[in-house]
Specification:
3 domains; Four Helix Bundle (Hemerythrin (Met), subunit A); three-stranded mixed sheet
Length: 349
């Protein structure tokens, strides 16, 4: 009976810190302070104290704005697994990177209440206008083929048609050819020359017709005005609708057209798509931007840039009607830095 009581007391002593951690809700500053305490304990060789501190943070949640996310379980497990000073130095460096990348909690606590009028105007602006019956569809921004491309396409299809036509012509001429006794040498050579001339004339006529039609199409297409303004669509809301390079090119077109706020979103979608392709993040429709940010590994070189880009996108897209040129330039700089790092990592594999 005495052994059973001892075991129960030991079990409660182990479970109690975990239960207390389950109930803890920390802000960003408190989370940064506790991580700094873990870093100091590791640096001073107090490994047991660091393990206990990591256990107390397990299950706690950190408040980012209106949502609370879990602590970095991967990093806390590494702290608990430290057995010598060499491992402690490596984990201490990782904790320092995470602390530096955390945003401050001050601006979130002092956030003004949402502007209901602004939200209503945004809702009205983003509501699609139904097409009137009997109206005309807007011209699609599709790049017409150049003259050399049209000529090659016409020659390719014309060559296939010509091959079929020549086989039919050969069969037809063989049926019309008179079945006479074998002629002399001179008559046979004359008829062969006539057949070759007829075949060459037919091929030349077909090629001339195809070239003339391609030239007429090129002249007609050059007279049509081309629309240089990007056309918005429902694809712009889904980051998976384009590849990262397409989003980056589309952002440049929007910026050139003066649509800076949409260009900020296009740069952010380009980075998200690149992170999904590289495996650094996994797409889930219900996740928020800051939940994606919390999932990045602390030692990732592009994590500070992604946190800054997320902050710019949230402010420009959800808090403003139009974006300034400075915000667009900052967003483009951070996005291109992340894309260069990701493309460099893919090239080194």
């Amino acid at each position: 009976m005495t052994r059973t009581r001892v075991r129960l007391v030991a079990l409660l002593a182990l479970v109690a810190p975990m239960l207390r951690a389950q109930e803890r809700i920390l802000d960003v500053d408190q989370y940064a302070d506790e991580l700094s305490s873990l870093k100091a304990a590791l640096g001073q060789g107090r490994l047991e104290e660091a393990r206990l501190g990591a256990q107390s943070l397990r299950g706690a949640r950190v408040r980012f704005g209106p949502r609370a996310v879990a602590t970095d379980a991967w990093l806390l497990a590494a702290v608990e697994a430290v057995r010598d000073q060499g491992q402690a130095v490596a984990v201490e460096r990782r904790i320092g990177v995470l602390v530096k990348s955390l945003p401050t909690a001050g601006p979130v606590a002092q956030r003004d209440p949402p502007d209901r009028g602004l939200l209503e105007r945004l809702r009205v602006q983003q509501t699609p206008t139904p097409l009137p019956k009997g109206g005309q569809l807007e011209e699609l921004a599709i790049r017409p083929l150049s003259f050399p491309e049209r000529v090659l396409a016409a020659l390719r299809s014309g060559g296939q048609w010509l091959g079929r036509s020549l086989r039919k012509l050969r069969d037809f001429l063989l049926k019309l050819w008179p079945k006479a006794p074998p002629p002399g040498p001179e008559a046979s050579s004359f008829r062969l020359n006539l057949g070759v001339l007829a075949l060459v004339a037919a091929i030349t006529a077909v090629l001339a017709v195809l070239a003339y039609r391609a030239l007429r199409r090129g002249q007609a297409a050059s007279k049509q005005p081309r629309s240089r303004t990007p056309v918005s669509s429902s694809r712009d809301e889904n980051p998976l609708s384009r590849e990262a390079s397409e989003w980056e090119r589309y952002a440049g077109e929007l910026a050139a057209a003066g649509r800076r706020r949409e260009a900020v979103r296009a740069f952010y979608h380009a980075v998200l798509m690149a992170l999904f392709r590289s495996g650094a993040l996994h797409y889930q429709k219900s996740r928020t931007n800051w939940e994606y940010a919390s999932e990045l590994a602390p030692e990732a070189r592009f994590r500070p840039s992604f946190l800054e880009l997320t902050r710019i996108f949230d402010r420009e897209w959800y808090g403003r009607d139009a974006s300034a040129a400075e915000a667009l330039a900052r967003s483009a700089e951070e996005a291109r830095r992340i894309l260069r790092l990701l493309r460099g990592a893919e090239g080194s594999v």
